[in-house]
């Protein structure tokens, strides 16, 4: 019973960390990254489709993303989706490939991105703490219903706290890595 609560809490905390990492991967730094555009939704024959399903995305140079669609007819729609996104990038379309030049970030933009990283990290921390609270509430409920002993409940709560500390540390490290990446010139 306690193990079920711990297993569920661990899965939910791990999920909060992976959501954060995906968010951070999509954030722009001074360097080109396929993560910047691969999740971008493109309307393809009336259906919103992630860009990585419509094209090969590569980074031939540190400041350039190349997008080679599998279907040349989708070039215009991919271009429109990039322009409509909040990336702030202008696509160069030569009829075969779309090239995105990634300009260097200004100091002001770097600071804005750092604040955004901090906000995302805090949201992930809150998500993990909510999972902790939920797991501890479940353990207390089991105790109240005499399904587990008081000592087992206490041990379970300690284990939940250890899990929380572990995942909060992972979140902090992911945030620090992204901030370092943003500040690199």
What does this molecule look like?
The protein is of the alpha+beta class and 185 residues long. 57% of the residues lie in helices and 15% in strands. The chain has four helices and six strands, in the order H-E-E-E-E-H-E-E-H-H. The strands form two sheets. The protein has a four-stranded antiparallel beta sheet, covered by helices on one side. A two-stranded antiparallel sheet has the order 1-2. Helix 1 (2-25) packs antiparallel against helix 3 and helix 3 runs antiparallel to helix 4. It is elongated and about 70 Å long. The model has no long low-confidence stretch (mean pLDDT 88).
What's the SSE pattern? HEEEEHEEHH
Query: Which superfamily, in CATH terms, is the homologous superfamily of the largest domain?
Result: Ribosome-recycling factor
Helix and strand content put the structural class at alpha+beta
**What is the share of helical residues?**
55-70%
How many DSSP helices? 4
Please name the CATH architecture of the largest domain: Orthogonal Bundle
Sequence of strands across the biggest β-sheet: 3-4-6-5
**Amino- and carboxy-terminal Cα gap:** 51 Å
Give the biggest sheet: 4 strands, antiparallel
Low-pLDDT stretches: none
The tally of strands reads: 6
What's the structural domain tally? 2
């Amino acid at each position: 019973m306690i193990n079920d609560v711990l297993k569920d809490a661990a899965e939910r905390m791990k999920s909060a960390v992976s959501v954060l990492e995906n968010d951070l991967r999509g954030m722009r730094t001074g360097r080109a990254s396929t993560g910047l555009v691969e999740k971008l939704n493109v309307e393809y024959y009336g259906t919103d489709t992630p860009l990585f399903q419509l094209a090969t995305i590569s980074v031939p140079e540190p400041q350039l993303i190349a997008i080679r669609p599998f279907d040349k007819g989708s070039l215009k729609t991919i271009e429109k989706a990039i322009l409509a996104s909040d990336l702030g990038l202008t696509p160069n379309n030569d009829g075969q490939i779309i090239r995105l030049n990634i300009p260097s970030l200004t100091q002001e933009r770097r600071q804005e991105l750092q604040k955004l990283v901090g906000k995302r990290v805090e949201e992930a921390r809150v998500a993990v703490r909510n999972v902790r609270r939920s797991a501890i509430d479940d353990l207390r409920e089991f105790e109240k219903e005499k399904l587990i002993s008081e000592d087992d409940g206490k041990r379970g709560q300690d284990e939940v706290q250890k899990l929380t500390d572990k995942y909060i540390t992972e979140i902090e490290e992911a945030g620090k890595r992204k901030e370092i990446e943003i500040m690199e010139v």
